[in-house]
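To assess whether the prediction recovers the assembly geometry, we first specified each molecular entity separately, as shown.
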Amino acid sequence: MMSLWEYANPVKFLRLSSKVMPWAWGVGVSCLVIGLVWGFFFTPDDYRMGSTVKIIYLHVPSALMAINAWFMMLVASLIWLIRRHHVSALAAKAAAPVGIAMTLIALITGAIWGQPMWGTWWVWDPRLTSFLILFLFYLGYLALWAGIGNPDTAADLTSILCIVGSVFAVLSRYAVNFWSQGLHQGASLSLDKEENVADVFYQPLLFSIAGFVLLFFALVLLGTRSEIQLRRARALSLRGHTK
Amino acid sequence: MSALLVRDLKLAIRAGGGFGLALAFFLIVIVLVPLGVGPEMDILSKIASGVLWLGALLACLLSLDRIFALDHEDGTLDLLVTSPLPLEAVIMTKALAHWITTGLPLVVVAPLVAVLLGLPSNGYVWLAISLLLGSPALSLIGTFGAALTLGLKRGGLLLSVLVLPLYIPTMIFGSEVARRGIEGAGVQTPLLLLAGISFGTVAVLPFASSAVLRINLR
Amino acid sequence: MLLSVSDLSVSRGGRVLLEGVAFDVQAGQAILLSGKNGIGKTSLLRTLAGLQQANSGQIDVPQNAVVYSAHLDGIKQALSVVENLQFWGAVFGRSNLDAALETFELGDLRDELAGALSAGQKRRLGLARLLMSGRSIWLLDEPTVSLDLASVSRLSRVVSGHLAAGGAAIIATHATLDLNGQEITIDLGKFATTKSDLAASEKAFL
Amino acid sequence: MMPELGKYALSVLSAYGATALILSALVIYVLRRSAVAKAALAAQESSEDG
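The predicted structure of the complete assembly is given in tokenized form:
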């Protein structure tokens, strides 16, 4: 049986991922379309939030992906540092742009959603603030990748930054909760919707979450393939020149 | 290690060592705030503790990218790595030297400069205590960032982008201690958390930084 | 036998430079590494010093036996000659300051700021550091750069003294060093890789 | 066909609009990077056999 680590061989990964790509894109996009169309056109307004409840189909999945993308990068960094598998380091590099885009979507849709309640476009609500902080961590991670020339050194340093960064991201999440209590006004509208989502809204939400997850998977797959192809071109040129 | 510490302190104090630069920067930043925000004392005193913490944090950041760069440029770093000194101890010593030349003076200077912002009277002692407890974390996280950006072209700027997000917990708890001290509310929780982060970074980050340094010197 | 290298392959920037490098160093012996520029002398020395991981192969050397001296001398311009040497003495736990100063005739420059020294004098200060280390195996990377003839012969005398005292040295140099017969010259040309071999990490992508 | 969005129409539409914008920018970026990578590899592989 082909063990999971077999996929770690970059060239083999290229061959196998090309088979998975069409499915990932196809199912992902269709789930997304179903989820959004269903949620946007065929669900009633919420008695409290009116039609803004429709933003849930964007905010919840993107928020979910923003956090899970960083977690995936953390696991990939650990695999790279311990097992030295190129695919996992390059997958982490490919996941970062998708993660930062998801964080941005979560931020903007969160702010727009809260706007009618708060009357302003931005409020330092703990959840929104922690997404803003996560956005900064993504920026640092991408900046470090861009700043280093040698690919292996870059992979090592960004992996260590991701691990150390994760610890501080969790600390920041806790500190932000602590800091907003400090302002003596409780979190006005806490945006974690999972608990009080009525059934009628729930099914389309599942579809759009599935859509976002598969879209993330497809984008990271494509991104990793590009990184491997660039590294392969670099290796060929290294070998080519010395002939 | 003490020889390394003595050497670093000597270098910092000698001509061109840049000992007073971080403090001068801190003073300038604090002076700029009223010029930007306006002279009303009641506004300034409300934001004083946060601004003073931010100024101290930026002052620490400023003097960080030289921490390894000088030794890297003249080859001392390569020689230190191949010397009997464990690299983690070298990093701890470097962070300690940075703390002594930047962190500690800030703990003394900040309350003096706080007068400019009309910091309420009972805030001075808490500001000093919070800076004293928080600044070790600033030095060690900064040393980690300096190791990450060793030898990079635009290292200084990249260092700030990498390190500032890591400063967030320390800054939140630090300025919270000062703010609660002023309001007379219980400072115990933020104080313990601030100290916890500092001791955690002192214990763990040198190992991460030395791994990073070894990779960068490869 | 102080140090033995077997089947060592050294790479730089993803490319293998040297392969199958093998030699032994007995006490009192010096190895002169010769070969054209960029063949991998510095990379080999850095691998022996432990600064760089070998692509493959084996290096047997006792712990804490090696001291490395690179192109850059690791001298602090703002410290005086004495302070520089005292620092390295403290790092290596040695205190034979005067012997080092006298050997490299830096006695009258002892309180001079290192920044004020000439290139040759700085080089001598850098090499004086080796004496302070008390380590048995010296790894010298182009030690004769910016040294005048008198200084080169002084360097030869110092290295010979070190060899006579049971030490060893591996020196990457183009200059001819007269170590009264103790030296063996190895031309790295025979270890250079002709076919363009890639380091393991790059080969994974081919 | 268009559901009655009420007074929050602007918010809902701007949220969907912003998301569409960001997602399309992301997809374009990833696709362009893939094209560049394929081209670089093809160039190397052709000069390899050439």
